[in-house]
Predict the structure.
Amino acid sequence: MKKTFLDLLKQPITNSYLTDINKKSIKEEYFYNLSVVFDTDNYLVSLSKPVDPKKQYTDKYAHRASQSLTMRKSFKKIAKKLKLKFKPSSSMEIGSNDGVFIKNFKKKEIIAVEPCANLAKITKKMGYQTYAKFWDAKLANKILKKNNSSDLIFSANTISHIPNLKETFDAVNKSLSENGAFVFEDPYIGSVIKMNSYDQFYDEHVHLFSLLAISSLLKKSKLRVFDVELLSTHGGSIRFYACKEKAKYVINKRVKTLNQKELKQGLQNFYTYQKFGLRVKNSKSELVKLLKKLKKRGKKVISYGATYKSATIFNYCNIGNNLIDCVLDSTKNKQGKFTPGKHLKINPSGDGITKDIDYAFLGAWNFLEEIKRKEIKFLKRGGKFITHVPKVKIIGLQ
Ligand code: TMP
């Protein structure tokens, strides 16, 4: 049974940055109700009504995984590790974005699957066999007609975006070689509950996974988890290593350890999520209170990183130009545009935070260390960051 524990109100599609804020574009902006449910049968946490993927993954998709140094390094490291561990002769990536992972593989050794046409173009140009389509049973069959089954299927921050997990996992099973490994990583619900990072809920994060939920879902597609890792990327992610039921892999003891940890955290109980829902409400009032106080004192506040996460916060907390001046971001195709829903102007972060700014809300709080290093001048002259994770607080130079 699906039970609702969180209502994040009316939200826009996070990737739909507005080029103009004239009457027409504001009128045409798409909103949906973002509420989150827990499935008591399989422990899966999901949005109650996912947005149609065709509205989200268009040829205007803005997110570039290779924008952040942290992510470039992380993909290079995992590519090296997986090649060493599984020695795959044929691999595939589901959701290849701008090629940040596959560029660590030889052209003939990996297939890219990416529904956003603008991104698929990039990996095609790089010389990789690219399918500009959504991952489903039909595509899996099409790929298998032309290629061998895969020794390695990798996917980062994509599986959790797909509404129909049964079809997704069935198609993976079909595409894997006998001892092939299916390695996928996505934001971790255990970290969200622990850090109160409710901004991990937005239209693209249709589900947030736990080991408990994934074990249950994979079983239905005759797959099983044989290893698992917790990662710090994206503010807390989980990487699953899965294979066919009968594949050779022995289950690592990390699986049992995490399973026990999740039971202790209560990820199998609706009550845990209900309590989280109350903490989110408190976080909202704390943040709004702080921003109002700073405004009253005449402080200038901006936001750092035009992230999807911050779209959830600004729309849920009703934070717009009344409290925040603008957003800084290093991504060229976001600059000059306006954030979805609240229409804050996005300016380039290139020259750093200017002298007139007193506070910067961390839209990209998961890159705090990278941002602190970049913005050391801001901190040295007394500038401060604001975050809501794990609770609303001010971060200065220490
Ligand atoms: P993400 O959390 O979806 O990866 O988005 C991070 C966003 O933050 C992305 O638009 C780039 C931006 N960003 C900066 O503008 N400056 C930075 O130093 C970092 C790390 C990210």
Q: What stands out?
A: The two ends are 48 Å apart (CA to CA). The first strand starts at residue 2 and ends at 12. The pocket of thymidine-5'-phosphate is lined by residues 63, 67-68, 305-308, 329-331, 334, 349, 364, 366-367, 370-371, 374 (CB under 6 Å). The chain has a mean pLDDT of 96.
